[in-house]
Amino acid sequence: xxxxxxxxxxxxxxxxxxxxxxxxxxxxxxxxxxxxxxxxxxxxxxxxxxxxxxxxxxxxxxxxxxxxxxxxxxxxxxxxxxxxxxxxxxxxxxxxxxxxxxxxxxxxxxxxxxxxxxxxxxxxxxxxxxxxxxxxxxxxxxxxxxxxxxxxxxxxxxxxxxxxxxxxxxxxxxxxxxxxxxxxxxxxxxxxxxxxxxxxxxxxxxxxxxxxxxxxxxxxxxxxxxxxxxxxxxxxxxxxxxxxxxxxxxxxxxxxxxxxxxx
Length: 263
Hints:
With 263 residues, the protein is of the alpha/beta class. It has 8 helices and 10 strands. The protein has one domain (12-261): TIM Barrel (Alpha-Beta Barrel), CATH 3.20.20.150. 38% of the residues lie in helices and 19% in strands.
């Protein structure tokens, strides 16, 4: 069931975001991840593990454990956006606990930093404080995602938001910005390194094309060199692959495992 390929050091674990394959079943995703030698899955709250569906979360937890996979939770909760039609953060926490996750990925609103006024910043920060307090009560951490159209879209704004959230259980994910150079991305990674949890891994060509991960090997080795100075372990999760193909995923997973094993 599990690949015989040598596993990388536990400090750097290879993994997969389930949103990479939104149309596939949780069983198929877990099996493919394990067979590829991955160690962790970030189960997405948009399709596979909706907030509040505790029975489904429990099933996913058991399935993940049967394949030897650890779990994180990609909740898609947007801080500062109190939409009555969306699940409350308490439902997100309940699902994270049912999944056996230890960290919850969130988005910093739905406005880019250049379009957000002081009131919007305050809304996001206040909601993040409330979310962090609720998560902390259950020994969970909250991680922001570096993403466009949120307050973490640019590194200066990203760091400003982290500075306004000096909380013991608030961290951030990181991913390269395809509009920036490798040097600029490495610099942004260094700036968030003290607060970094996990990394989303891909090779993206704007506006909408994913390429083989191996073609970006030089860039990723640069980022891994930065991450060697990190004070904590990290999960490196593949997020989207060329043509949404399982063959492309297997190829990218092999590259990722190889890179981490020598990092």
